[in-house]
Amino acid sequence: MDNLLFNNDLDVNNLLGSEDKSKNSLEYFELDLDIYDNIFKNSPRIRENLENYKEVITTFEKLNEDIYLALFKANPVIKEIEEISTEYRLNNVMIRNLFKIDEFKLLRNSCSLNFFSSILGTDLLGQEIVNNYEKLSESNKELKKQLKKYDKDFKEYVEIKKTLEEFHTSHIQTENNSLEEIENAKSLLKTIEVKIQKDVENIEKILIDDNLFYKSVSFAYKEFLSISNTIKSWGLDDGKLTPTSYEEKIGVSLKLKSLKKVREISEMAGRFKSSASKLQKRKTKEEGQEICGVQMGSEIHKVLPSEKILLAKETTKKSFYKKYIQRELLAYKYKNNKDKSKGPIICCVDTSGSMEGDLEVWSKSVAIALLDIAIKQKRDFVSILFSNKVYKTIEFNKNKMEPSKLYELATFFYGSGTNFVEPLTESINLINSAKYKYSDIIFITDGEAPLDEEFIEEFNLVKEKKQFRMITVNVSDKVEEALNEINDTQILLRDLTEETIEETNETLFTI
Q1: CA–CA distance, 471 with 483 (Å, rounded to integer)
Q2: Pfam families, from UniProt (predicted)?
């Protein structure tokens, strides 16, 4: 046969008879996967998991993208199976079955247009699908048989497709690569395509019969709610999303939710935060706000006109959306126009033996509610954990919640006796530094330690000179008279738990 020169305009997809076939089952824009790629391709743990999951489901990488798109997009559109490349049609039927599960709809409601939630939902659901798929393939003989056949057909299809692609890239047909051979290969490819489609249908039936999709979504949704609630209740939902921050948040939240004591602290801190939030909102509303500068963010109502104008042209729209996703739009910065700037909070927490149990839960709950206020108001926060001496001084950055430090605050407990002088002296040392010179002190204890007259006198002299406030939160039911000699007010446990005493909460949570 004469040599045949390939037309340079002949696309490999035309040669394979699969023009415009997609590897993804959902319609999307390139921008939709920007955040996904940043997390899933740059997190070592997730990257390793993806490689392992591909050993179980060959096409898992694209399946994982589809799960993310299904969760993130407000109105996801699933492509028809005929639009999907043959190798990825099993993904398509899996995605279609997920959408039939009620819990998946609930998961979507929690994730839609929320980057962090969508990443978390994808991470959990992808893992659960693989786990259940692997278990079933080992225990179900019929599935094992079908997967063996599917794997054989899949590999044969990929091999023939690769051969045809090589024919195309070589451009020149030799006697060995005759037109007849190409037509035979294309015909065989079509035959295997039909086989794969049948394999996919058989596998789908077994997966449905085993309830794999429901089991996977149901477990993933429960885990999603548990982790999400932990992240929210501990103030870790700060909007920051990088591979490092995502991994740290997930790691700490899993530790936090596994400890009974910490779960109790979280629940009680949530109630305090709710009260604090209402008081802060009311105070802000009463005082009003004024523009004080420019900062980066993604709140559309605050975005500068110079940024919004990017939406006017098709060529600059993508730049606007990218800056929006990354919270890098220039926006007005506001401040309360009747409220002077507030200083840091120094929070001393008693971890002596008498605080063990419910009293520790109460003390840590108040501390974490105050930390939440400080972070929201961009105020530095220091936690001094003490018993017979100061054991830990944890400094929190006013611009971000640090999960590892939060975990340390929630879980550290020493026991032993009680010494008030050391944590109060440490507080004064901090106030004497430039960074903390405008601080106020919150002192949380059960009120069982003496203060000598000399210390009281020296402390009050510094207090008068530095003009700071000190509030004692006494988690017992009796007043500690020694602390009344140095604090501005002492709040008892019963006052914090009495819903009718709003004034007490206002003293503490509007500090």
Answers
A1: 9
A2: VWA
**Predicted model pTM:** 0.68
Query: In terms of domains, do 47 and 134 share one?
Result: yes
The domain tally of the chain equals 3
- Distance between CA atoms of residues 379 and 370, nearest Å: 11
> Is 246 within a domain?
no
- Over residues 438-479, the pLDDT tens digits come to 999 999 998 778 899 999 999 999 999 999 999 998 888 777
Residue 363: domain span: 345-509
Contact of 426 with 415, CB cutoff 8 Å: no
Average pLDDT, the chain: 83
Q: What is the pLDDT of residues 144-154, one digit of tens each?
A: 999 999 999 99
**496-503 mean pLDDT:** 51
Q: Measure the CA–CA gap between 405 and 416, rounded to whole angstroms.
A: 23
Q: 243 lies in a domain?
A: no
Give mean pLDDT, residues 261-288: 60
Domain boundary among 166, 195, 214: 214
Contact present, 292 and 286 (Cβ < 8 Å): no
* Residues 198, 293 share a domain: no
Per-residue pLDDT of 90-105, as tens digits, reads 999 999 999 999 999 9
Instruction: Identify the CA nearest to 40 among candidates 242, 321, 198.
Output: 242
Distance CA 227, CA 124 (A): 10
Judge contact between 384 and 348, C-beta under 8 A.
yes
CA–CA dist 428, 425 (Å, integer): 5
The answer on 138 and 87 residing in a single domain is: yes
Q: Are residues 332 and 411 in the same domain?
A: no
Q: Give 437's DSSP letter.
A: T
Q: Kindly report the CATH number assigned to the domain that includes residue 373.
A: 3.40.50.410
